Amino acid sequence: MEYQELGEKLKNILKLEREPVAMKWVSREPRNIPKEEGKSRFCTKLDKAMNGEIFYSTADEEECMGGLRYTGMKDPCEFPKNMQSGSFLVPSGVYKSIPAVQRSWKNNLAVSPGIFTAIIFAPLSKAEFEPDVIFIVGNAQQGMELLHANAYDSGSHGLGADSGPICSSMAAVPYLTGKVTYGFGDIGSRNNMDLEAEEIMVSLPATDLERVIDNLEEMKTKTFFKRNVA
Fold first, then answer.
1. CA–CA separation, 169 vs 186, rounded Å?
2. What is the pLDDT of residues 57-106, one digit of tens each?
3. pLDDT band, very low/low/confident/very high, at 226 (cuts 50, 70, 90)
4. Distance (Å, whole) CA 131 – CA 220
5. Is-contact 44 192, C-beta < 8 A?
6. For residue 222, what pLDDT is reported?
7. Nearest to 25 by CA among 93, 110, 119
8. Whether the Cβ atoms of residue 109 and residue 69 lie closer than 8 Å to each other
9. What is the C-alpha to C-alpha distance for residues 131 and 24, in angstroms, rounded to an integer?
10. How far apart are the two ends of the chain, measured CA to CA in Å?
11. Which of the residue ranges 185-194, 204-213, 221-230 would you say has the lowest mean pLDDT?
12. Is the dihedral angle over the CA atoms 64, 70, 71, 77 positive or is it negative?
């Protein structure tokens, strides 16, 4: 089944108000997809794709250190020392001290730098490529149903994201672990994205997408989930 069709099915069965986003890491800049105009943060790129934009982005179009670091677009050793230490996050109120930053960062997965040149972003229902990760914004019930659908035939639990940046938790983590991830977003993403207070995030490895949708369809015929159908 084509990913565009899967995108429409996912929106319809969950009654999603926002477009799921397809992401793909590539070693060469694509010829048939436009490059993002100007710079933006990784989380803002997700917003653009949810609003219908299709584009690819390189390190030159990324203005956030986290977006560069965790998606593998730049080696963190190339950052200024205040960014490598995380000291810039202390006066902004994200952490109380540099040791707290360093301890937190040890838990943030990152795609290895130097492998990929660009990331493609598109609404899933318009993706004409095979994505790596599907990013979804919805309400708590929609998130719950996705997690149940992931566990329905596999018994597998998703990974709950903490306060780490979504360029790690919602992009690098599902890419590197092959696990469904979910969370509330971090303060940076919620300050830079057009999100409602009650919305949550879920990311699926694209290889799980068709299975999860099939499970959602079957679950909706069962007693517990019939009760949740509006």
1. 9
2. 999 999 999 999 999 999 999 998 988 999 999 999 999 999 999 999 99
3. confident
4. 26
5. yes
6. 87
7. 119
8. no
9. 5
10. 27
11. 221-230
12. positive
**Tokens standing for 105?**
């960062």
Q: What single-letter amino acid sits at 141?
A: Q
Predicted pLDDT at 1 = 64
Specify the amino acid at residue 216.
L
**Residue in 214, 203, 211 with CA at minimum distance from that of residue 180:** 203
Tell me if 61 sits within 8 A of 39, measured CB to CB.
yes
pLDDT of residue 224 exceeding 90, the answer is: no
Report the candidate in 107, 203, 202, 112 with the shortest Cα–Cα distance to residue 164. 107
Q: What is the DSSP letter of 62?
A: B
The residue count of the chain comes to 230
The pLDDT assigned to 223 comes to 83
Are 173 and 159 contacting, i.e. CB atoms less than 8 angstroms apart? Answer: yes
Who has greater pLDDT, 107 or 117? 117
CA distances (Å), origin 119, targets 12, 169, 209:
27, 16, 19
* Residue 66 burial (10 A CB sphere; 0-12, 13-18, 19+): buried
**Mean confidence (pLDDT) of the chain:** 95
Q: Are 183 and 161 in contact (CB under 8 A)?
A: yes
CA distance 60 to 40: 10
Both tokens assigned to 186: 């971090």
Cα(47)–Cα(51) distance, rounded to whole angstroms?
6
